[in-house]
Design a protein that fits this description.
Layout: H1 4-8, E1 11-16, H2 23-34, E2 37-40, H3 59-64, E3 67-68, H4 81-97, E4 102-105, H5 109-117, H6 127-140, H7 142-152, H8 154-158, H9 165-178, H10 182-192, E5 197-203, H11 207-224, H12 226-235, H13 250-257, H14 263-286, E6 292-294, H15 296-311
Parallel strand pairs: 1-4, 1-5, 2-3, 2-4, 5-6
Helix pairs in contact: 4-5, 6-7, 6-9, 7-9, 11-14, 12-13, 13-14
């Protein structure tokens, strides 16, 4: 039975998984059936004019179910996880106040984690500590720093490779500046911020089928005019140096338009890099023990029942 604290918190269904698995399609279908609105958790769908290459919900999709956190900024404007957290939490608060069911849907693991857990607030650091540690590493070697880290913060040391000098220095500068291990701050943060009750459903499919779907979807994007979308973005003045223009698919189309690679190579790289990205997403999400993995093609009714039970669904909320 839910505690009073759990009942008082917004109840959020998180629909996640690798690219190409069909998150948006299923989310729209289920939100139509059960009610509610969708908050996108996709780091590329925040950009205006980038529609085909991001598989952004179409205007028809958005008429079927209201979406939030898409088309927020132009490709030359900065956007990051902290801003997503602020806007995402505001959207959840509004939906909760309006008694709407809340779906968070997407494959950007960092955005989902930041939305649910917040950002790790760094303690105040002595600006001289980092330089001092860099000099020490240069003079005594990384091994000496690692041995010291094992003494002052064994938990962090156990999670680092002995050659990971960057994170080693980061951990030691926190200890040297505050006298408290960085693992303590992270532990406090981990337990301190749980603003929502969540049901995390990971959509899965057989890897061979997923890779085939990724290739088919790439061909569909190209058939819908993905290359022309990128060409139009460049004509609008959004150059190849911009971070969104270096993202999956866009990078390859840009390189083709700049005559750096041929068409067949551009398409080949686009499909290959998308498969690699899906694999990285699997790795990220599989590390979260709260995710319940379901194959929507066989587990559809089970998912519906789980969501209804989680929400205490009565069918009287949109």
């Amino acid at each position: 039975m839910a505690t009073r604290d759990e009942r008082d918190r917004p109840r959020v269904v998180i629909l996640l998984g690798p690219t190409g698995v069909g998150k948006s399609k299923w989310a729209i279908e289920w939100a139509e059936e059960l009610g509610g609105e969708i908050i996108s958790a996709d780091s590329m769908q925040v950009y205006r004019y980038m529609d085909i290459g991001t598989s952004k919900p179409t205007l028809d999709d958005q008429k079927r179910v209201k979406h939030h956190l898409i088309d927020l900024v132009t490709p030359d404007q900065p956007f990051h996880a902290a801003l997503y957290r602020t806007l995402g939490r505001k959207a959840i608060d509004h939906l909760y106040q309006d008694k709407k069911y809340i779906w968070v849907v997407g494959g950007t693991g960092l955005y989902i984690k930041t939305l649910l857990q917040g950002l790790f607030s760094s303690p105040k650091i002595d600006p001289k500590a980092r330089e001092r540690l860099k000099r020490e590493a240069k003079g005594k070697g990384a091994d000496a720093l690692f041995e010291r880290l094992k003494k002052v913060d064994p938990r962090t040391a156990s999670q680092l490779h002995p050659n990971d000098l960057f994170r080693m220095i980061r951990a030691l500068e926190v200890f040297d500046s505050t006298g408290v291990p960085i693992s303590f701050y992270r532990e406090q943060h981990r337990f301190g911020e749980k603003p929502y009750a969540t049901l995390k459903i990971g959509l899965k499919m057989d890897r061979e089928r997923l890779y085939l779907r990724i290739e088919e979807r790439a061909d569909e994007m190209l058939g819908k005019g993905f290359l022309q979308e990128v060409e139009r973005l460049m004509e609008m003045g959004y150059g190849s140096e911009l971070k969104p223009m270096q993202s999956l698919g866009y990078k390859q189309m840009v390189r083709f338009l700049l005559k750096e690679i041929g068409w067949e190579e551009a398409v080949k790289q686009m499909k290959r890099d998308t498969r690699h990205y899906a694999k990285r997403q699997w790795t990220w999400f599989k590390a979260d023990p709260e995710v319940q993995w379901r194959d929507p093609s066989t587990d559809r009714e089970k998912i519906i029942l789980e969501v209804k039970s989680f929400w205490g669904w009565r069918g009287d909320q949109a």
